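Morning, I've got a small favour to ask if you have a moment. I've dropped the whole record in just underneath, so have a look.
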Amino acid sequence: MVYYGRMNIRKNAPLIAGLAIPVVMVLLVAASIYLPALFAPAPVTNFLYMTGSQYYYGDQYSVDKGRLLKIKPDAEQKPYGPPNNQIAHFYTYNVSTNTRSEISFEDAQKLTLDSSVTSPDGFQLKNGTQSDGFAPFFVLASEDYRTHYLVGHGASYKLGIEQGTAFERFSNDFQFLGWIIN
């Protein structure tokens, strides 16, 4: 019969502490990463975005004083390349249902927009990142323009923005226009 009394626990205290400290540190780091996201408010402000190229001498769009405007290119401005025949498509994105709905330019003009980087509820639209390799060898990090996130309050929410046409998928043509203000 083996007796495990106080003497053995005191004798093994450095070993127990040496094993417990890394476990406690991992738990503290995990808690500091995941706990803020558990208590963060969910995003509620929807937004308007468009696909369809604005490059070369196609129509351009901007938000001024809360309204979407169509800017015709200057006739004297020389194009940077071949004519662009891409038609702009406008979408509202509903953050609560994680879905998009296509709307016409005329309907988009009726919306009141806030074109600031941060939404009224404290979130920002960010592109994802991707990397190839591992540190310190072959670290090639770049923006992944096909993946979008709402980031704020210590939380990150992946958006289900699908780029449908072949042009959208390969050109990563996405332009945020503004937060929809009710």
Observations:
- Helices lie at 6-11, 13-39, 105-109, 166-171.
